[in-house]
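Researcher: I need the complex structure. Ligand is S-adenosylmethionine. Inputs:
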Amino acid sequence: MELWFTEKDTVPGLALSVKVNKVLHREKTDFQDLAIVDTPIFGRMLFLDNIIMTNIKDEFVYHEMISHVALNTHPNPQKVLVIGGGDGGAIREIIKHPKVEKAVLVEIDRRVVETSKEYLPEIACGLDDPKVEVLYEDGIKYVNEHKNEFDVIIVDSTDPIGPAVGLFESNFYKSCYDSLKEDGIFVAQTESPYYNEELIPQIQKNLRALYPITKLYLAFIPTYPGGCWSFTMGCKKYDPETVDLSNWPGYPTRYYNPEIHKAAFVLPNFVRELIKE
Ligand code: SAM
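Model: Output:
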């Protein structure tokens, strides 16, 4: 008998199904339903509340693009905060950057980290690095309690559901702004421009109220609804589009490079329209 896993109605009326070889793990954590399945197309996949979070085949796109665009815009990204991201993919990328001295991961659900270490070691492999501190608490509370501390803050959140709702709200954005140093950079995954036509302009508005430079960029991720995914940056000082990348340290990446960094900010007209001031 064939087994299929279906993510459905994350976008109302839309479903994405993937054939499953085997369910490797399933549990109800204190925060969400967590599943790891093995699939013929994408290898092992992590689902939270029946929504695809990451998988072995295409995770590099998301994790490189949520990390390296900000890290290479900042001239000296020594101290980096990740909120969410318990699979460890963003952390694995961040510690590739030679200037990073410390990366703090604040994940609300300990079981996401523990299960990723067990079943997704290719993604979670950086979590035990000595530069990395992993804390299990609400990212909203954490940024409220840490001011003027980080060069880069990366919000690698689930969709705006459950504990992640507050990670898309203006109070949280303000706390992140205060948690950054005076030349800091904020970046968050901001969903699909095809299906989040209300959320994306709202995020832009909230970030524009704080940062002199707010920019949206895109990457192509087959397992997220629509395949075309957005990230939004708020920068206190450095512009990701005009930054000189000729001295890019050139550590190994599979998606990110200086040309992709610049090209990711070239937007189709319908996305320009979505974020126009
Ligand atoms: N790449 C994924 C995506 O966009 O589908 C997201 C990665 S997933 C590992 C995001 C993580 O954010 C989850 O593990 C979840 O537990 C965590 N999270 C949600 N709300 C949070 C909060 N308020 N504070 C810290 N972590 C949170």
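Model: Summary of the prediction. The chain has a mean pLDDT of 96.
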